[in-house]
Write a structure and sequence with these properties.
By secondary structure, the chain is of the alpha/beta class. The chain folds into 2 domains: 73 residues, Arc Repressor Mutant, subunit A, CATH 1.10.10; 174 residues, 3-Layer(aba) Sandwich (Rossmann fold). It is built from 12 helices and 5 strands. The protein has a 5-stranded parallel sheet, with helices on both faces. Helix 8 links the parallel strand 1 and strand 2. The longest helix is centred in the last third of the chain and has 18 residues. The N and C termini lie far apart (54 Å). One of its GO terms (biological process) is carbohydrate derivative metabolic process. InterPro entries: Homeodomain-like_sf, HTH_RpiR, RpiR-like, SIS_dom, SIS_dom_sf, WH-like_DNA-bd_sf. GO terms for molecular function: carbohydrate derivative binding; DNA binding; DNA-binding transcription factor activity.
Amino acid sequence: MTPGLLARIERGYDELSPQERRAADFLRDHLADLAFYNATEVARLSGVSKATISRLYRRLGFGSAEELRDHVRGLRAAGTPIAPDAPLSFTAHLDRELANLRSALASPQLEPAAALIAAATRVLVIGLRNSYPVALHLRQQLAQARDRVELAPLPGQSLGEELVSLAPDDVVVLVGFRRRPEAFARLVAAVLSGPARSVLLTDSTGRRFASEVDHLLECPVDSVSAFDSYAAAASLVSVLSAAVLAARPREGRDRIAGIGAAYDRLGELEGA
């Protein structure tokens, strides 16, 4: 894997001249803005010559300012947290969240995916790394609407024994947002090679799996902050689960009533 910008700076920092160190310190402290600054702007803002910036870029392994900008854009597009220099604009954050939400809920795959999940004999929800909390939430919501909804992998468990027991009437819901583990593509291939149908919840980086799964629900996680936001993903989970419930109204009502009675018997929830 090619080292990131910060790793390159740290690795060669001691060999830089005083002026190059000054510029390197600016790069390190303004990483989020480097996707937009050209070499002239970096030179002016860091208080060094443009020649120093060009020399520093070459030392860091970049052929040009554009190449460095592309590198920084790629980091953010891949979900790498990059701290902004200016305070977070809550208005800009809200605008981005609303755009993400509109995009996620406009998917034409939402209704057919819900119908597939509703009709399945068994539903297996799989999420790895940062996708695991979304998968956990989805399993919890779906379990209110229907029975035989399972989550994998459970702590300390592997996926092999879960996949081998799948049947043609089962559905695997894969949750795979960006910064997926290397093994994710093999997981998709393993599900595809089995008898079960499949649904994938992902962002734009997962489009390459569209031809391999039955339904792909694309949900942006882009944010104006340093971190990806899963607010739209949580809303998509809620809408998807509600659509599954609507497809099984009688079974869903009976199940919800039974769950409520069990809560009361066990005293699991606080009173109103």
